[in-house]
Records
---
Amino acid sequence: MSGANRLDWIVGAGKPLTGRIRVPGDKSVSHRAIMLASLAEGVSRIDGFLEGEDTRATAAVFQKLGVKIEAPSPQSRIVHGVGLRGLRASAEALDCGNAGTGMRLLTGVLAGQAFDSVLVGDASLSKRPMRRVIDPLAMMGANIDSEAGGLPPLRIRGGSALHGIDYTLPVASAQVKSAVLLAGLYADGDITVREPHPTRDYTERMLSAFGWPIEFSPGLARVRGGADGRHALRATDVSVPADFSSAAFFLVAASVIPGSDLTLEAVGMNPRRTGLLQALRMMGADIVETDARHQGGEAVADLHVRATQLRGIDVPEDIVPDMIDEFPALFVAAACATGSTRVSGAAELRVKESDRLATMSSALRALGIRVDEVDDGATIHGGRFVVDPAKPVVIDSHGDHRIAMASAIAGQRCEGEFTIGDIANVATSFPGFDTLAQRVGFALRDASA
């Protein structure tokens, strides 16, 4: 962003983080709940819905496709499902905003419709590659056009006869897997997706909760094709757990800010999502799970975290896919650790909202941390965050919400203040982050205040 719409933060050394907090609802679950409730027969209620721009964009898309969605109160939605064949063509392009998850999963849903659709996004999303979704859907018979390089807008031709496939993902991706499974609801024949490494299984769990015949285990999912009309999604109520990716920023912050003692309530503990928790514990973090339970078909727990001195590790490659969204926060934890932390097998980070390897490495270097960057990872050498008051530092988040929030953690350990630029997109995934962070001890303020 630029000009009048640009938002920046100023951050500096904060207080120990204390108290009990609950972060917003899980973004991945919120997206999928809106989608499946819209395609179900009957009325579904969603509680704990993330009131972020990404998830609201997905809801708005389905409203344009003819689905009635009510918001009786914040974090709640009542969705009047229209069934698999009940969506109606939109006269205008469907705007996914900044939501990569929304666009990729919608591509699978819309590939099986009888009408044409166009999916567009904001400037950031328009630079994100969609070819790895387009290719397997094309193998199923979908007709999808894109800009050069597989970039949005995506033009999806209606009336395609989809068929089942047995597809092995070249790169582990829950979004690609989910797009193929959702297209399978309209396909003739079964759809099998195999993964080189198990990814988060939110789509599989939710399809099962909505009554669709599906078999899944780590690394494998098989769904019955729905072209014969023998199966339907049945309306169900969904309780969305607190988002682990949002909790991750506070897990790291409370681990590295001396004196912190913080509890995060009802955090989603899906094992395909909590790789960061494993990595932090390997680094010596003091994080205890309490009151473990199930909520809406997903495991949740309260996480009690206390500050301790972390140590550098070699992050196991087998947990990288389970923490791909949490690497900006992990980089800050690594910078606060003794010794060096090595990350490899994370090339996926280069095609997120920004090139997160390059952007986060640059941010840490600007704060005095040595980072050795390679194609698929980096080595972060622990040190001290320092800025020279005579040389003001501005960390450019490149409009990437996770870079902005991770940089805010670094600010709490910094000797001196600095600015984090272009933070408006934080609202896409974590509305109210700044207010919640200030409440528990962050020193963070709006640069324009």
---
Amino acid sequence: MTFSIEPWTEKTVVVHVGKALDFRNAANFKASCQDQVRDGIRNFVLDFSETGILDSTGLGSIFSLYRQVSPLEGQVVFASVSRPVQVVVQLTRTYKVFRQFPSLEAARETLQ
């Protein structure tokens, strides 16, 4: 598992995505996030600061999470987006769906 989940508030966690979110670990990512939602978490801050690879499978798992928390008034946001991830976000127009923050601190201030 390359990612780690850090509790932030009662309803918010930070997911440090790590080096890659792709076909190798997307199912694991999805299952871990579903467990968090079951435990009452509604907001997910995805930290992409160390991420060099984001493929369509990884992106699909993020959208799956988004579809799960949206009806619950939750949100999924991106923070510290690395250059390789930014390229994927631009090409797929994902920025129209997910808010992006330059840092974890900026995301924290907004999601208080």
---
Amino acid sequence: MFGLIGKMTATPGKREELIGLLLEGTEGMPGCLSYIVARDVKDENAIWITEVWDHKDSHAASLKLPAVQATIAKARPMIAGFSDGVTVEPVGGVGLPK
């Protein structure tokens, strides 16, 4: 498995709208085992995204999907920046294959 954990910062006042876009653009991504969007409780503009994929190539392919490209284009003006991103190798857990 292949995983990503990252922090995205929305432009002030746009976090909820950005969360909505991120959640609507997650359907139909082959190989995506988990895609979690969460509010940072200490930073009113920050969002944490945790992804688990069956393989690194599935994640790369998802970025080329028309629906994902459209979501990225809509979201870009609401994104102030990215930080704290890490790549991980998930080994299992609730909802993930063993």
---
Amino acid sequence: MALEIRQSSTYMGKERWEWSVWLDGPAEDLDAIDRVIYILHSTFHDPVRTVNDRSTNFRLTTSGWGTLTIAAKVVQKDASEILLQHDLALSYPDGAQARA
């Protein structure tokens, strides 16, 4: 299975970004997934979030002020699990990288 976590982000001002993460991979691999459980930093309200919407490639959208490592438990329809990680990268409009 060749799955990856992808991301997008938008700087909102005042040191805050709106960002999204989702799974990318072959359609047959994505079709075999039941849900994705994203584990965010413990400072987030509700840091464990489950997404089961295949039509969005299991997209999670939220906002925050800094970078973090996101863990994802991919639960397949056959109940097997795949663990993925993604280092969220955020940048200012001038291209400078945000810090953790």
